[in-house]
Amino acid sequence: MNEAARSQLPVATPNGEVHIPLPRRVGVVEKAPEPASDATVFLPRTPSQEESERRLRKAAWVRRSAWGAPALLTLALGLIGITRPGLWADEFATWGNTTVSWSEFWLQLKGTDASIGPYYFVIRLWTTVFGDSDLSLRLPSLLAMAGTAAVIGLIGNRLGTYKIGLLAGLTFAIIPITTRFGQEARPYALATLFAAIATLLLIRMLGGFTLGIAMMYAAAVAGVGLMHLVAMLLLAAHGLAVLVLKRKLLWRWIPSAFAGVLPLIPIILIGRRQQGTQIGWIPFTDLHGIEAYGLEFFGGALIGGAIMALGVAAVSRERGAIVGITIGVVPVGILLALGSVAHLWQQRYVLYTVVGWALLVGLLLAKRGRIAAVATMAALAVLALPGQVEVRKPAFRYQDTKVVVALIERDLQPGDGIVYGLKDRGPGALNRDVIAHYLPADRRPTDLLVDRPMRTDGWMVSSEHQDLAARFKGTQRIWVLRLGEYANPLDELDGNKKEVLEEGYDVADSWWTTGYTVALLTRKDTV
Asked: What are the TM regions of this chain, as residue ranges (predicted)?
């Protein structure tokens, strides 16, 4: 012990007292301030930490690109030429339901189209905010297709790597049929979006069942059926996938699927009563229909053949491959079989099966090298080009309504009238919508025969006056608009229109456009 320390110890004096020396004050020691409770201490990062963070940011960006890039590409392709073709008959059914009051809207659904009433309800809300232009009517479908591409990317991420999602999503984006129905004001694109979401949730359920996933799955299934009841055949594909991949999950999957079906029961019951008027016109499936599916479904024979060939090559026992092939094949096979005995088969009713084929292509290409994957995607894009051009043509939509309007508007004169074929080949009852949608009231021919306008008192079809001669009196020129192509524009006109018009008028001119016959009649010389 040194001398300084020894001097601080207690010392006993001779008389027995203890002397305790006071410590020497050598300076003032101040207590160091405590750091504030919310203070953040920044320590320098090591090069390895910075590299790790860069890798994490890159991985997150790559995973986002797997769903973001397909969504943006789908949106971009869909916006190109979205308003070039005019609305066709089915789209006019959508538009017409946005033009009536809410009370009349509910009456319309009681009489017709209740099975897709939820879609009409969504579009009514949409057009209340964004208007009823062709772009506005079609934009929900395009957004749904872009959303589907994003969900396919997420499915791929869930199945393994971002490559699966990116390649599958891009495949979906470039398929011409994706653009075709992304540019149509009908419910099929929204049904496809819900089908993709339900598939993503099914894959999560296969990975690990939770009540939350089951509830979300049921909601997605309900969304599929609310947009289009026939699309509920998706459940057959999902059920088969569960049976093959994880049979023990069936007892949990079935209640989840049934919970999604429950909200649809009222629509199913009402739809059965309307079945004859809504789908009774659909022909039974035959060999020609099956051949047409292979040649036309994807938007072209070449791109369709390539997609299916790649999809078949991807089939394996893997989870993603089983889910993809069941979605791509099972609903089509069932509907083709049902279509041979019932009026059900339409290619657009199984539009959502494209999700399965795109997923299969992504799974296959992700296993190949980068060069092979890029080369294959480039080849698919080239094969899709003719189809991308075709789906934007009016002929691909069955009717070129804008040309009809242009013909009438070009030669229209004050005092002109117009007569419609109500029972033409196809939904001739919607002929009035062509003029009502595209021509302002002060620049359209007078509807000579209408008594009760369309979509009134629960009746979609208008009623017409039976005394034609009285209604035609004083009208020098009458336009005739027919759905379908007729050598004689007056042939097969409903009622006695043909006889009365032939007696008092001559056909001055007539035109055929895609899906329509337009004629101009002038009054005969009475001298």
From this structure: 65-82, 139-157, 164-182, 188-206, 218-244, 250-271, 292-315, 321-342, 349-365, 371-389
Tokens of 495: 């009622």
| Six-digit token string for 74 | 């789908």
255 shares a domain with 125: yes
CB burial of residue 247 (10 Å; 0-12, 13-18, 19+):
exposed
Question: Is residue 39's pLDDT more than 60?
Answer: no
Flag whether 147 is in a domain.
yes
For residues 102 and 211, the answer to whether their CB atoms sit within 8 Å is no
Number of domains within the chain = 2
CA-wise closest residue to 198 among 177, 179, 213 = 213
Please state the pTM of the whole predicted model. Answer: 0.85
Last residue of a domain, one of 391, 413, 430: 391
Q: Domain check: are 385 and 445 in the same one?
A: no
Do 368 and 269 lie in one domain? The reply is yes
Q: What is the residue whose two structure tokens read 């594909």?
A: 237
19, with CB counted inside 10 A (0-12, 13-18, 19+), is: exposed
Q: Do residue 376 and residue 323 come from a single domain?
A: yes
Quick check: is 119 in a domain? yes
Dist. CA 104–CA 226, nearest whole Å: 21
Last residue of a domain, one of 359, 391, 423: 391
Q: How many helices (H) and strands (E) does the chain have?
A: 23, 9
Q: What is the 3-state secondary structure (H, E, C) of 446-492?
A: EECCEEECCCECCECCCEECCCHHHHHCCCCEEEEEEECCCCCCCCC
User: Could you tell me the pLDDT band of residue 32, with boundaries at 50, 70 and 90?
Assistant: low
Comparing CA positions, the residue from 455, 434, 390, 454 lying closest to residue 90 is 434
Q: Which residue range is the domain that position 203 belongs to? A: 61-391
Contacts of 435 (CB under 8 A, 6+ apart): 405, 408, 418, 444, 445, 447, 481
Structural domain includes residue 75: yes
Mean pLDDT of 452-462: 83
Q: What is the pLDDT of residues 143-194, one digit of tens each?
A: 999 999 999 999 998 888 889 999 999 999 999 999 999 999 999 999 999 9
Residues 504, 382 share a domain = no
pLDDT band at 527 (very low <50, low <70, confident <90, very high): very low
